[in-house]
Design goal:
The structure is a single chain. By secondary structure, the chain is an all-alpha fold. Helix content is 73%, strand content 2%. The protein has 17 helices and 2 strands. Strands 1-2 form a two-stranded antiparallel ribbon. A hairpin with an 8-residue loop joins β1 and β2.
Length: 463
């Protein structure tokens, strides 16, 4: 067995995340055989998943003519994560993750095939889509934290950030291909064939998991059976600002800022009066930006919480700008930077939280991360869908972007406060206009230094 990863880097101060020293290049994780198998299987199944997402959204819109119905479908898919997500993390910490993934990937493939049979047979109704979306979400309650936490077992803590970035690049690369294929299939032969190919695509990760060399997996301590493990995980996160505030920001933006199935389908149909091909194009352009953001993230050796906040702020501002775009091509062009900053935010949040978490707690922490990121969709999806139906796609999109930008600003100020920083504005020429600087000891707004605050300032200054 390779050198075991029995512990992660220690938790850091609010302004920085431990640097594990990975300097092997943009694709360093792909040198590891087990991770290569995981990545190859992932790109095939992710392509199928994106095909199915586009086909599902368009099928529901065709059956109902309602953006709110698309929002309900998305909400039902992510409702189980909101209700049971933390329990999925307990399961992921307690059982072998490779074995869990073999079961969950098989179940996800079965959901895809069931929807394909209903659609191809001509018997599909909107409640069928709702039910299968909910069942799909139930499986992902366990699949998401197990898959997130399994990455470190394949690559170790040194290459974790690189692997997380490449996972995102993998997912978004499939997003370039999947919507385009789905658009052609829906137009030519209908949604059912996209669902069929999605169901079959889950065979690829299953084969990859079966071919892995278990002796080369990094040994990670598993949590024993016991009472109070869920509460233990929540207390662990609540006591660490470098975990709780990024997760709060992820929850706000995941709930209100990432409702693209609702917005893009509404813009394609109602604003630009186009078909599924245009919807697929908009998704592909956003994916192109996301791949760029993921590859740029893969080159960075460490995570910075100021990068997290900055990317989230720009993401929200760009959403507001896109909502007001007067022409289709300007709207389409803005999808690329939205993809870049949205993915930069997501990768930075994911890797910084994982690297600041003890291995035995990683499943529970990542289940909370995924719960607030995608589990907020059952709350935000129907609300955003209602806003879009009642007041138009532009207002719905702008509202999501405004909430994202305000959330990033609020969390950034909180983190700066915790780290002993204050906002400094300098209008003199040749200087940085806006920056965070250490608060002066003894100032009216700042209590005298204590060992804790001095240490927080020292570490935060490195951010």
């Amino acid at each position: 067995m390779v050198s075991p990863a029995s512990s992660a880097a220690p938790a850091s101060a609010p302004g920085s995340v431990p640097d594990t020293g990975g300097q092997g290049g943009m694709f360093s994780s792909l040198r590891i055989r087990n991770y290569r198998l995981f990545a190859i299987g992932g790109v095939i199944s992710n392509t199928g998943t994106w095909m199915a997402r586009i086909a599902q959204d368009w099928l529901v819109l065709s059956l109902t003519g309602s953006s709110a119905a698309v929002g309900i479908t998305t909400a039902l898919q992510f409702l189980p994560m909101l209700l049971f997500g933390l329990y999925g993390g307990v399961i992921a910490d307690r059982y072998p993750k490779r074995r869990l993934l073999l079961m969950t990937q098989s179940a996800l493939g079965a959901c895809g095939l069931a929807l394909a049979v209903l659609t191809l047979s001509g018997h599909v109704q909107v409640w069928h889509v709702y039910l299968i979306a909910f069942l799909f979400g139930l499986v992902t309650v366990v699949d998401n934290p197990a898959r997130q936490a399994f990455v470190v077992e394949m690559v170790g803590p040194r290459d974790l950030r690189n692997a997380v970035s490449l996972n995102s690049a993998n997912f978004q690369s499939a997003r370039l291909v999947g919507p385009a294929i789905a658009g052609v299939l829906i137009t030519a032969v209908g949604s059912g064939w996209a669902f069929l190919l999605n169901g079959l695509s889950f065979g690829a990760p299953l084969i990859g998991l079966l071919l892995m060399r278990t002796s080369e997996l990094h040994k990670i301590e598993r949590a024993p059976r016991g009472k109070g493990q869920l509460r233990e995980g929540l207390r662990y996160v609540a006591g660490r600002p470098e975990l709780i505030w990024p997760i709060v920001l992820v929850g706000c933006i995941g709930t209100f800022g990432f409702n693209f199935p609702i917005w893009l389908s509404a813009f394609a149909d109602d604003v630009f009066h186009a078909g599924p091909g245009t919807y697929g194009l908009l998704n592909s352009l956003m994916a192109a930006g996301s791949v760029t953001g993921a590859l740029l993230a893969a080159r960075r050796a460490s995570s910075r919480l100021r990068l997290l906040v900055g990317a989230a702020l720009l993401f929200g501002v760009l959403e507001v700008a896109a909502a007001m775009a007067p022409t289709f091509w300007l709207f389409a062009a803005l999808m690329v930077p939205i993809g870049i900053f949205g993915l930069t935010f997501n990768v930075t949040a994911n890797s910084s939280v994982q690297l600041a978490t003890d291995p035995a707690m990683r499943g529970r922490v990542m289940s909370l991360f995924m719960m607030v990121f995608v589990g907020g969709t059952p709350l935000g999806g129907p609300l955003v869908g209602w806003l879009t139906d009642e007041y138009g796609a532009r207002l719905g999109f702008a509202a999501g972007g405004l909430v994202s930008a305000l959330s990033a600003t609020a969390v950034g100020l909180v983190l700066a406060r915790i780290g002993g920083l204050r906002l400094h504005v300098d209008l003199r020429g040749g200087r940085r206009i806006i920056a965070f600087v250490p608060r002066e000891a003894g100032s009216p707004e700042d209590p005298a230094d204590t060992p804790d605050t001095s240490e927080a300032r020292r570490l935060t200054a490195k951010a």
